[in-house]
Every structure is written in C-alpha cells, then in structure tokens.
Amino acid sequence: MVSDAAALGIAAFAAWISRRPPTARHSYGYGRAETIAAMINSVAMIVLVVGLAVAAVERLQQPHDVAGAPVVIIALIGLVTNFLVLGILSGGEHTLNTRGAVLHVIGDLLGSVAALLSGAVIYFTGWVMIDPILTFFIGALILISTLRLLRESLHILLDGVPRHLNLPEIGRALAGIAGVHSVHDLHVWAMGSGQVALSAHMVVDDLARWDEVLVAAQQHLREHFNVQHVTLQPEPAPSLVSRIEEPRR
To answer: Do 153 and 228 lie in a common domain?
Structure first.
C-alpha cells in the first residue's frame, strides 16, 4: 500500500507538471514528465516484484505459520480499497503515466486476491506452501506488464517513432501529395502522451506552390495519422535547380 501511495503521488505530480505551458528553457513543454513518471513507477514495481520473489524463496526454504483468518479479512479490505482506486484511475486519461499508477494498484489488487486464496487454503487445509507459490505466480504476471510499460517509456524517451505509426507509410503518403517530388530527413517522435511531432524535408516541383503543398500535407497528417505538430521544409527539385543554375545565353 505504501508503494501504491508513492506511485499515485508520482503520477499526480507528473500529470500536474506536464500541463505547464512551454517556456524559453523548455520550448516543447513538460509532456515527457509523465513518461519519466511511468518509467520510475515501472522500475519501482520491478524492484517490488524481486523483493517479493526473494521473500517467497525464503518462505519455501523455511515455511512459517500463517494465520489464515486474519489474512482473509485483511485481503478483503485491500481488495475493496484497490477496486475503488482502480475505478477512479480508469475514469481518467489513459496515458503511460496513469498506466504506471494503475500497474501498482493492479499489482496490489492481485496480491490481495492471492492473499485471499492462500488465507482460505491455509485456514481449511493448513498448507502454508500455497502462499509463496501464489507469490511467484502473481509476481510473474505483474512483471510481464511492467517490462512492457518500461520498454514503451524508454522508447518514447529515446525519441522512437510511436508504435501506432509507420514511418515508411508516412513518407510515402507525403511523397504522394500533388506537387511533391520526394521526402527525406523524415522524423516522427512523441513529445508526451498523445502529442506526436513530425519534421521532414519535402522536395517540391514548384516552390511557388509551396503554400498549397504545405496545407495539403498538414491536413493529410492530421486526418490520417493524427499528427498535429508538424515542421516541414521545402526544397527545390533537382530539375528546378538545374534550370535556375543554367547560364544565360
């Protein structure tokens, strides 16, 4: 529960920071604060899972007596509490930041389920080995989701192309716009949760028609790829450069 409270505190602080407007020092704003929070929470969850695994190994080597009835009561209280918190978080934005907080809550919720089951088994059968066995099982489930969240967080922090977008497909779409000869130096990255930026050099057949090409490119990126923050640089086509540089007779 302490780890849950810390995770929620980190997520809330990051959400507040991310909404601050851009400044002269941070011209893109603070959208990646949520990504950093998600990475911190995922690392913390991995540490927590490792700690639980170590404790489970110790329990397997040296089984301890467990009071089944109190475990069941405490697990039920934790289960209800975590369901309430999970319902609140599920009603907000679905960002990496909230996923990191939700992961902690789900981890604790699964822990409550495991404690409930183990408490019941121990109460009725006295088999205390069920406790570390369920710990390993729940820990493995949590670890899979945690590693996925950590990978996504690092992908954004390393300016990777958002996974729902295909860079070659975007390049072909831009190159297919009327008046565009080719596209190069194409870059797509996430500035924060749901904020995608793009920059590219577009070789055009006629620089005089650049305004039309720019509007068409921005509209296509917005409607087909949901890319709002676009920076495009026009360049003359090779044939146009040769005509301009051709000496006069």
So the answer is: no
